[in-house]
């Protein structure tokens, strides 16, 4: 739980509610389990949400991330929660040099695919499969955020 709270603080704009208490579990055809969305408010204004997303298509299986979105849908930041990728290759998805290319990008206009697949993401050297899984997870998080925005940004109780 502490890991989750730290990730939430890392990926979201400043907030004054308790996103863990206000979590929304959203069922989607995109995932087997419900997706957890943590809405963030400051002075009762919606400032963004953190979405936990994953892909089973990593080089070594599961890649689980938390994507923080600003209220306008732009990515604030991304935290890698779980991955078993190849050390020195796919594990570099946690490095600032990879993550920074997603910050302040709005997936409405930024193609969340590796360049090799016609997108705008610079794949990790020697880890295209890991990069694809990361990008796919980010896209799924965005799709869930946008589709459920009305339910997510309701003022907290």
UniProtKB/TrEMBL annotation:
One Pfam family this sequence matches: FMN_bind
Domain (FMN-binding) ranges: 58-145
The entry's keywords: Electron transport, Flavoprotein, FMN, Phosphoprotein, Transport
Keyword Transport: yes
Keyword hit for Aminoacyl-tRNA synthetase: no
Organism superkingdom: Bacteria
InterPro entries the record matches: FMN-bd, Ion_transpt_RnfG/RsxG
Protein's name in the database: RnfABCDGE type electron transport complex subunit G
Organism: Thalassobellus suaedae
């Amino acid at each position: 739980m502490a890991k989750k709270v730290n990730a939430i603080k890392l990926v979201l704009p400043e907030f004054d509610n308790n996103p863990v208490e206000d979590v929304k579990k959203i069922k989607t055809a995109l995932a087997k389990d419900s997706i957890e969305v943590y809405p963030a408010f400051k002075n009762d204004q919606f400032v963004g949400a953190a979405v936990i997303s994953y892909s089973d298509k990593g080089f070594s299986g599961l890649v689980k991330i938390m994507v923080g979105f600003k209220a306008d849908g732009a990515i604030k930041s991304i935290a890698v929660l779980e991955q078993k990728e190849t050390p020195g290759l796919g594990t570099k998805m946690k490095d600032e040099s990879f993550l920074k290319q997603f910050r302040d990008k709005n997936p409405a206009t930024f193609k969340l695919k590796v360049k090799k697949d016609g997108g705008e993401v610079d794949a990790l050297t020697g880890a295209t499969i890991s990069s694809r899984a990361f990008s796919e997870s980010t896209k799924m998080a965005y799709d869930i955020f946008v589709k459920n925005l009305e339910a997510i940004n309701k003022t907290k109780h």
